[in-house]
Amino acid sequence: MADGEPDTIDSADEDNDVLLRNSRPAPIVLKGIGNISMFGLTNRFDNEFPPNLLGKVAREEFQSTMGHVNSLIGRVVPRSARWLLAGCLCCCCTVGVSLSPVVYLNKKTQSRIRGLLESENSRMYRKLGFIWWLDKQKCATSNLKEYVILIETVEHHDVHRPD
């Protein structure tokens, strides 16, 4: 290369990466269907088997995972509701500090759900080409945000195929 000649970058690799990212299917969204929602986390997620997973994940495994998530949330929601009621009653006297146990329980529940989904991912779903995770999304009907479970498809890199 001569002096003063600009370096060129081959954009073919960048174009292929963009095409691969754009060709990935949209994630499957599992929304909360419970009747109680505290700080965006509902008391139950939909355990109806999505048709997009048909032939990729066993219906029993999906329902087992959703059962674990729903039972974890179901144990925490009554306790959080009691703390919220007590916090609201004492809010004037404590200048809002009495609501901190509810916030703590909500964050702890989110952390437990993320840990549960990560263990399920490492146990089974990554091998099948999926990643489950808890995400906060804007509600369709209002400006509030809610927690949903996203199921994303991941590419398998074939290590036995030559470059």
Give a structural overview:
The chain is α+β, with helices and mostly antiparallel strands and 163 residues long. The chain contains 4 helices and 5 strands; from the N terminus they run αβββαααββ. A 3-stranded antiparallel beta sheet has the order 1-5-4. A two-stranded antiparallel ribbon has the order 2-3. Helix 2 packs antiparallel against helix 4 (100-128). The longest helix has 31 residues, at 59-89. The mean pLDDT is 81.
Keywords:
163 residues; alpha+beta; 3-stranded antiparallel beta sheet; two-stranded antiparallel ribbon; 5 strands
State the shape.
Answer: elongated
Which sheet architecture does the biggest sheet show? 3 strands, antiparallel
Low-pLDDT segments: none
How large, in whole angstroms, is the Cα Rg? 22 Å
Entry summary:
This protein is an alpha+beta fold. Helix content is 47%, strand content 15%. It has helices at residues 12-23, 59-89, 91-94, 100-128; strands spanning 28-30, 37-38, 41-42, 130-138, 145-153.
Strands, helices and their partners?
Blueprint: H1 12-23, E1 28-30, E2 37-38, E3 41-42, H2 59-89, H3 91-94, H4 100-128, E4 130-138, E5 145-153
Antiparallel strand pairs: 1-5, 2-3, 4-5
Helix pairs in contact: 2-4
